[in-house]
Specification:
The chain contains no helices and 23 strands. It is an all-beta fold and about 375 residues long. The protein has one domain: Beta Barrel (AttH-like fold). The strands form 2 sheets. Strands 1, 2, 3, 4, 5, 6, 7, 8, 9, 10, 11, 12 and 13 form a 13-stranded antiparallel sheet that branches. Strands 14, 15, 16, 17, 18, 19, 20, 21, 22 and 23 form a 10-stranded antiparallel sheet that branches.
Length: about 375
């Protein structure tokens, strides 16, 4: 779910929580295309952008094996926002669509994230999100950030160029898209309009290159991919969400989220559990999140429940972070602060998988 994603609920990664002022308007409310429960997702078209919807993101999180170093977490997220600027303005400079991107590495040896972000309007090919298939980018030439799917192989390529790190990764799915909610219609609140179209691609096989501190290293690992788009998301009074996506060691996948009110009560929750790489999928689960431990950020003062217990059906799963300080301050792009962290899932004290936990609304209510 995501964007803060990302991710919002994705989250993803994380949702566009606090868009720059250019995306807001004091004039008449613009028309956003609604998310409808009757819509059937069709591929490859729905791999691509949906420019009539207000917000959209492509979100990749995972774990990387590195030579002679501990495993690291990584996040790559691209957001597209349809702004409140009049869409009929013929000027090439008109900021009709914004593309924003986040990238982060969770490095145990450093004890906190390395993070970078970019943002641009879509004018003059400085950024864009293609329809028809996944191709989204910010920047030009060798320095561009990009995420694209090869239709011939169904593999994704993520390219993050610059400081303080570089990533060049290939992401290979082992199954078709996994539709979340009811056929890809994912409720986020009591009203049907409070929903997204949402699918996931768990258990991506990762290979590629990481450049860090001037050194190149070959990396491999496993990742989770989310793609969501919507025009309305949170119910009145909702401040944020908790979301988790776990690649299970048996080849299965677990996704769960809850949307929270200011008083901590639950607005909406949902979960999905797939048994094994090709097994049956359950979507009738009601997850319960219980914070086990919080970490306070010295930078923002926010308290993040970085260790969670997830009750899903008859199963109790504990989520333990790779490191506590996985807070992202993205005020330079989406204008919000959220926690997006690599976690290990344990059941009866034994590891059963790894993935990412996304926490939003603890450093201030999300704004859409």
């Amino acid at each position: 779910m995501r964007p803060s994603r990302r991710h919002w609920l994705s989250t993803g990664a994380i949702a566009l929580a606090g868009l720059p002022d250019i995306a807001r308007s004091s004039g008449p409310q613009p028309h956003w295309e609604p998310v409808k429960p009757t819509t059937t997702l069709r591929f490859p078209d729905d791999h691509g952008a949906h420019p009539g919807h207000r917000i959209e993101w492509w979100y990749v999180t995972g774990w990387l094996k590195r030579p002679d170093a501990p495993e690291a977490g990584f996040q790559v997220t691209f957001f597209r926002s349809l702004t409140a600027h009049p869409q009929g303005n013929p000027s090439a400079f008109a900021p009709r669509q914004l593309i924003l991107a986040h990238a982060a590495l969770a490095l145990p040896e450093r004890g906190r994230l390395l993070h970078a972000e970019r943002a641009s309007r879509t004018a003059f090919e400085m950024a864009g999100a293609a329809t028809g298939d996944t191709r989204v980018w910010v920047g030009r030439g060798d320095s561009a950030w990009s995420l694209a799917r090869d239709p011939a192989t169904d593999r994704y390529r993520a390219h993050i160029q610059g400081e303080p790190f570089e990533l060049d990764l290939e992401l290979a799915p082992n199954a078709p898209p996994l539709l979340q909610g009811d056929g890809g219609f994912s409720r986020k609140g009591p009203e049907l309009s409070q929903a997204s179209h949402y699918y996931s691609r768990p258990q991506l096989r990762v290979s590629g290159r990481l450049r860090l501190s001037g050194q190149n290293a070959s990396v491999s690992g496993t990742a989770w991919f989310d793609h969501e788009w919507a025009s309305e998301l949170l119910a009145p009074g909702a401040v944020g969400w908790d979301w988790v996506g776990i690649n299970l060691d048996d080849g299965g996948a677990l996704m769960a989220f809850r949307v929270r009110n200011r008083d901590g009560s639950v607005v909406w929750r949902s979960a999905m559990l797939r048994d094994g790489p090709q097994g049956p999928v359950r979507r009738d689960l009601t997850p319960q999140f219980e914070p086990l431990r919080t970490w306070r950020s010295s930078r923002t003062g926010a308290r993040w429940p970085v260790e969670m217990r997830l009750q899903i059906g008859s199963r109790t799963i504990d989520l333990k972070p790779l490191l506590d300080d996985q807070e992202l301050n993205t005020r330079g792009s989406t204008g919000t602060t959220y926690w997006e962290g690599a976690v290990t899932a344990l059941e009866n004290g034994r590891p059963i998988g790894r993935g990412y936990l996304e926490l939003t609304g603890y450093a201030g209510a999300l704004r859409f």
